[in-house]
Here is the input.
Amino acid sequence: MKLNELTLKKAIDLIDKKEISQKDVYLDIHEAIEKNNKKLNVYLSINKKAENEAKEQQSLPLRGLPVAVKDNFLTVGQPTTASSKILDGFMSPYESTVTKKLKELGGVILGKTNMDAWAHGSSTETSDYGPTLNPRNSKYLPGGSSGGSTAAIAADMAIAAIGSETAGSIRLPSAWCGGVGLKPTYGRVSRYGIVAMGSSLDSPGPITKTVEDAAIMLNYMAGKDENDSTTSFQEVPKYTKNLKQGVKNFKIGICYLDHPDIKKSPIANPLIEAGKIFEKLGAKVDMLKTSYKPESGKALTHEYAIPVYSVVMRGEVSSNLARYDGIRYGHSRDMFGDEAKRRIMLGTFTLSKGYADKYYIKAQQVRSLYIQNYKELFSNYDLLISSPSPGYALPLGASINDPLFGDLQDMLNEPSSLAGICGISVPMYRDLNTNLYLGLNIMGNYFQEEKILQAAWAYEQATSWNSWVVKR
Amino acid sequence: MTKISEDTVDHISKLANIPISETEKKNLADGFNKALEVVDSLFKVDVSQTEPTHQVTGLENILREDKVDDKKTLTQDEALSNTKKKYNGYFMVDQILSDD
Here is the structure.
């Protein structure tokens, strides 16, 4: 077995037992990058000093192991572009909180990964530096916007990775690439030093090979940050501690399966199967009804989330991207791509005089309905399950000239993202003909990351869909 | 239902400081009108009794002392490190007021 294929947990264990050396891990990682990066376009830049930095980190918790970082995290000494030509050549004078923490704990930033420009998309096809291809089948998209990081994991070009999600950008590409991706509760992980998209939505999180690896990474990423006033004061549990406790007596609700479009989609049967697996593991599983107005015990349809998200996200984008003036850093505003232009301008419109009440306030009111709906559902259920995408990865070219591509792909994630609750995607099915994956989205109430990890771990162990767990 | 005209697109382009071409203008207007059709489904939901969301996890008034922390500020050189035009430790910007 090549050492680049190791999970984070296994790599740490083997280094501690002195069965492998850190150097050997880097040899195999570099070989994989050499072999695949040109074709798959995963890394936009590689840290040439990674191996030297790693030597000094050997005794720290992450043992100097290589981590792939989405190119919207600011990193000192390495370029940050957010996959936009506007930031071509930009070198940040300060470090994001998350990468700072990971570096201090022995993580080495191996390289910066491709994404949809400004994270505006769900394909990683709208990068100004060309699309990333799905390592599971290179005729297909990896999903996005964190598609470079999920592809780095799927192609074993890193031991662990990080990404960020506004609505689906961690979970959807993780599902399409057959890996694990966790979107924490809003405010659980600091947004400081991340190129902002939707400030009331953005949630950085781990992208890994296994659920246990996600728990290890989250241990090191989560927590209050005085540089991000929206981070929570709630204590951070040790996510690896109770990881293997199982789901006995958990109450789980399956969402949207009675919705006509979802009922006939590829995720329907695998979701029913997932429910049966949780029942076998000792959980009580209900099929929730979808409703078109707020109703007790029913899941409010994901359909309204598209307009709410469109308005809220575009408004916040227009405000956040106002800082790219081409004066203090970056290039001029005429270099924004079509999607960024559309989002900035529609956001500007819906926030402009006379329209802010009509659109933005209205959207924030409907957003409150989702929050109330989840609060009510979580008073009865420990977890809700669905899928981060209504289907498999789409072929290259699918996102071009489709202005609502991102929203339609992300619609199953949007309600939970708007509410700010946490969710994790784990492999739920693999199509034998295409080698493409579906993901299971396990959602929990605010700050219930421990619970979603427990369920995800139990599911991963009880099924054979995770390619790294099977290999072990 | 609100319709966005090409004149409105012009106005938004100025507000957002996004230069656009004549051909883009028409496409943008069409695209915005399509997007607003989707957004209009917001009006199907009764929210007359619902407060708008302000902060999803319920944090309020997170304040800090009004004191400069040198550790958190960039040096002048760091702040200027990515600009294309600087002069004597300042950012140089285009003139916006005319001489006369």
